[in-house]
């Protein structure tokens, strides 16, 4: 099993590794990564999105019929609390900065990823 330190090191080195690769290699890596991501989003993302959408509709119907009182301030504070928990647990700020660095320094990878993603979603 990988340790946390080696994972952070790899994540920080990723933009340099991709940026130093030839253009065709960047396109190939980006396309494969994008294709995999797009396919996974369409196959595994449908269920959670459908559940969330259904829950929102049911909550709104119940609220419009007077079957419950929604405390929007409480919902907002819980959402912000959950976001902070996720950010601290998964270190999303480092991931976001790495993604930004890769997209700025590796245009071939970025184009390959976007193209592969769209193909993956279309499959």
Automatic annotation (TrEMBL):
Matches recorded under InterPro entries: FUN14 (IPR007014)
Membrane topology: Multi-pass membrane protein
Any one GO BP annotation for this protein: autophagy of mitochondrion
Keywords: Membrane, Transmembrane, Transmembrane helix
Family: Belongs to the FUN14 family.
Places the protein is found: Mitochondrion outer membrane
Name of the protein in question: Uncharacterized protein
Entry GO terms, CC: mitochondrial outer membrane
Organism from which the protein derives: Pyrocoelia pectoralis
